């Protein structure tokens, strides 16, 4: 797989929570949980299952920082 995004984080799927149209897929990346919201159709097309290795690919034009 070759993609333009530079932030590709390999991890393991720990949960897939499906809603009416959107699923929240949580991936454990070295102890940090990364959550992605994708369509239920994408979950099915990719054959995603809990325990499976997967990549969280981050592509963003802005990174914001906040403090208390």
Summed up:
The protein is mostly beta strands and 68 residues long.
Characteristics:
68 residues, mainly beta, OB fold (Dihydrolipoamide Acetyltransferase, E2P), 4-stranded antiparallel sheet, 1 helix, Molybdopterin-binding protein, Transp-assoc_OB_typ1, molybdenum, Mop_domain
Write the layout of secondary structure elements.
Elements: E1 7-18, E2 22-29, E3 32-39, H1 40-46, E4 53-58
Antiparallel strand pairs: 1-2, 1-4, 2-3
Characterization of the model:
- The protein is mainly beta and 68 residues long.
- The protein has a single domain, classed as OB fold (Dihydrolipoamide Acetyltransferase, E2P), CATH 2.40.50.
- The protein has one helix at residues 40-46; strands spanning 7-18, 22-29, 32-39, 53-58.
- The chain has a four-stranded antiparallel beta sheet with strand order 3-2-1-4.
- The protein starts with 6 loop residues before the first strand and ends in a 10-residue tail after the last strand.
Mean pLDDT figure: 90
The succession of helices and strands, N to C, reads: EEEHE
- Write down the Rg: 13 Å
Strand order, largest beta sheet: 3-2-1-4
Query: Can you say what the CATH homologous superfamily is?
Result: RNA polymerase II/Efflux pump adaptor protein, barrel-sandwich hybrid domain
Named CATH topology: OB fold (Dihydrolipoamide Acetyltransferase, E2P)
CATH class: Mainly Beta
**Using DSSP, what is the number of strands?**
4
| Broad shape | globular
Q: What's the end-to-end separation, in Å?
A: 39 Å
Main beta sheet: 4 strands, antiparallel
The portion of residues forming beta strands comes to: over 45%
């Amino acid at each position: 797989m070759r993609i333009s995004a530079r932030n590709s984080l390999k991890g393991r799927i720990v949960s897939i929570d499906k809603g009416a149209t959107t699923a929240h897929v949580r991936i454990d990346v070295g102890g940090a949980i990364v959550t992605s919201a994708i369509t239920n159709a994408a979950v099915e097309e990719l054959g995603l299952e809990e325990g499976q290795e997967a990549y969280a690919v981050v592509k963003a034009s802005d990174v914001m920082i906040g403090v208390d």
